[in-house]
Amino acid sequence: MKDAIKLYEEVSFNCSELITKKYSTSFSLGINTLDKKIHKPIYAIYGFVRFADEIVDTFHNLDKETILNQFEEDTYDSINKKFSTNPVLHAFQSVVNKHKIKKDHIQAFLNSMRMDLKMKDFTQKSYEDYIYGSAEVVGLMCLKVFCDDKEYNKLESYAISLGSAFQKVNFLRDIRSDFEERGRVYFPGVKFETFSEADKKSIEKDIAKDFSNALIGIKMLPSVARSGVYLSYKYYLELLDKINSKDSSTIKTERVRISNIKKFMIFVGTYINPI
User: Fold this and answer.
1) What is the rounded (10 degree) CA torsion for 7, 12, 15, 17?
2) How far apart are CA 106 and CA 85, in angstroms?
């Protein structure tokens, strides 16, 4: 019986690992530089958030709200029962229960996914709420895996800054696709049709502040996580630098990418010159 349960656990975590590797090469690369003992829980967190995101952003011919509601119900049911027939949720609940991830953070994340179903224009408050739920709490979930409660309390604000920076870079990079495919611009007060150089510079300045604060916390992370988080930081910083080098009209017409060669160079650079 114990061997069968162990096998089911292994298969569940392997599913989340496969999801991560299929959906995000950059995130997978970052996980590979974490201590091996925390690979599986981070894969489990990513698998969970990835599937929720797919519900709201991909399956346009389905009743997304009903599916998301069921996903939310199944998530809490799996956490309470410490079991799910959905391997992604089974792996996630295992991490939630073991590392005492806050249910408030899970709820905030699901609330942000629900905002994606209907919200097109964001106020400053809804923008901040969305970023908190969609990115900042995901970083906090990972932080729960990385360290003990004392370290968590010390590093919480820095993890929030890092999640915020990552999400804002994504918003800026994807401003065209978000508008054309989903009819929305996340930045409050910014219209896609009139997106200007001044808009772009203001957003970039805000992101730079987040990155600056986040780096303080990265330097204080436990050794099991520091290299992997720093690699992700460097990758997104490179994205921001590349966005900085282009004007607002270019950002509206093309999606900035980092080549695989450049990703590898960043990887090698962080290995040779660790934080």
Assistant:
1) -90
2) 20
Specify the DSSP class assigned to residue 199. H
In the numeric block, which tokens belong to residue 246?
A: 């282009």
- Of 224, 234, 231, give the one whose Cα is nearest residue 37: 224
pLDDT (tens digit per residue) in 38-82: 999 999 999 999 999 999 999 889 999 999 999 999 999 999 999
Q: Are 160 and 139 in contact (CB under 8 A)?
A: yes
Whether the full predicted model's pTM is greater than 0.90, yes or no, is: yes
Q: What is the pLDDT of residues 167-210, one digit of tens each?
A: 999 999 999 999 998 899 999 999 999 999 999 999 999 999 99
Helix (H, G, I), strand (E, B) or coil at 217: helix
What type of residue sits at position 91?
A
Determine how many CB atoms are found less than 10 A away from the CB of residue 141. 27
Give which of 166, 144, 180, 157 is closest to 253, Cα–Cα.
180
Place of tokens 């974490």: 34
Flag whether pLDDT at 2 surpasses 80.
no
Q: Which domains does the chain have, with CATH numbers?
A: 2-272 (1.10.600.10)
CA distance 26 to 189: 31
Number of helices and strands (H, E) in the chain? Answer: 14, 0
